[in-house]
Structure formats: structure tokens, C-alpha cells
Amino acid sequence: MKEWLQAVQRYAKRLWQWLLRKDILTYLLFVGLATLVWWGRAMSSQRDTTITLPIVYTDVPEQVVFDTPLPKELKVTIRDNGKQLQRIGDGRLILTLSMVSQLAEQEGTVHIAAEILRPKLQDMLPGSTVVQQVQPEVIEAGYHRQEEKDVEVRLMAEWTPAPQYQMRDLPLVEPQEVRVYGKKADLRNLRYIPTEPLKIKDIRDTMHCTVGLDVPEGLRVVPQNVSVLFVTEQFTEKTFTLPVETYGCPEGQSLRLFPQTVTVQARVGMSHFNDVREEDFHVICHFPKSEQVSVPVEVECDNPYVTRARTNPSELEYIIER
To answer: Is 239 within the bounds of a domain?
Structure first.
């Protein structure tokens, strides 16, 4: 390693001595000075350059539709000294155009000439900079206002909770309505805007997703996407032992069941476990219409937190008493 470093030092020393003998350093010095002189003159001399400015249009009502797209950028040829032009080129200038006065009618033509653009551009640039040319010279496009209508968003989705989970409620769509723009005839019978098909599996806890809208041709909606919230929770089962009531017995007859009580198993979300009570359930059997060994047991529940309820046993033997 030491010998290698010594060899590098020897070669470096020889190279330096060779440069001194050939006056290379003097030559490079004069080249550098010449470059600095040229650069200084270039920075102080007047010259032209073309910059590209993005255009932002403001105050455009949602119901306004342009027959042809408005230009998104403007090419501006400016004159100034090189140093100033370099600063302008390094900046991020954006031309903002308010369309209030241009879109005052129900329909018409937007016409913004270079004579209107030049003062706006000049205000954005340094005082010494002169605007030479603007392309395009005229911003022009026809426009018309569409009819509008607020309609419901209908979620077109399939969802499946993860094992041991259940939906706490139906998915929440936000916003629930969107504003639709189009021809009056197209809006007349429009009742809802469907979302794009959505399929979600294995939902746990809370899930947010953004879905687009399936907009009919010729219509435009704002916003173009909606947010969908899926909320699930783990479920458990709550059991009750309840008596069975009989219905539909002919006059003079009664139905004796064996047994006369059943176990009701109710599925409920864990957050609402204490909100489910015995009085929420009604267990019944109907008088048999034909000869059969047993009658089915039905359970009715008016508690919204119970997603499923079943009985054990599901059928009961009986005898008819007169």
C-alpha cells in the first residue's frame, strides 16, 4: 500500500513539472479570463428569449362548457439583459385570468386579445423587461351554459366482512348527492348516478375507499368521485330461553307443544351487546294446516342491532287438544 502511494506521488510530481514546462497553466488562466469576459458581456447585453407561462382560469362556473379547450399555456417572447432574463427563466411565473366578464351571458365566445394580455404580463415581469410577442395572440373559444340537477348517488358494490365480523351499518357514501350538468332533456328523467362497480372482501374494522361515478355520455358531474366508508365490528351471540306462543288455532282447539320453551340465539355486534333484551323477541308456532309430526318455530325481532336470530330446536312436536 505504501509503495502504491509513493508511485502515485511520483507521477503527480512529474505531471506538475510537465505542465510548468509547457505553460499549460498560463494558457488555462487566459481561457478562464476570456470566458469570464464573455459571460459578463452576455449578461449585460440586450437579447430576446421565449418563456412558457402556465395559464390558470378562475371564476369559471361549473355549468359552463367550452366548445374547444382553452390553451393551458402561453409562449411569451421578452427582451432584457442576460442577467435579468436568467432570473426570469429561473422563476415560476403563472398567468391567472379571471373569466367573470367573459362568461356573463348564457352562451357566447371568450375573446382575450394580446392587448389585454400584455399589461398583465408586464405587471408580472421586472420593469426593464419588454414583452415582444405573445403566442397565441388571441385566446378564443365558444361556450354555453348547461342545465343542472342534484341527484342521488347509488352505490354499486359487493362487500364481505372478514370472519367473525359483521357490518355495523350500511356503507356510508359521501357526498350522497352530486350535481349533474347536461341538456334539459337528458336531465329530465335522471334519478340517480351509479358508482363504478366495487367489490370489497375481508373488511375489518373501518375501511375508506374512493370510487368513481358511472356518468352517462353527454353529462358531467361534480364531484367526479365519492368516498365510501365501510364500518364493521366483531360479533357475538346472546342467548335467551323464551316461551313459544301458538297462533291460528281453530275455535275449540288448542296446540300443546313439546317443549314449551326454546333457546333463542341472537347475533349482535359487541358494541350493542347490552342493548339486546328478552322483550325484543317473539317466538311463535302456527297451527298446522295438515297432518305433520312437528311444527316449525319462528322468531320475530324488532331490535335493529340483531342481525340474525335462530331457535334451538327449530321444530317442536305437538298434540292437538279439544
So the answer is: no
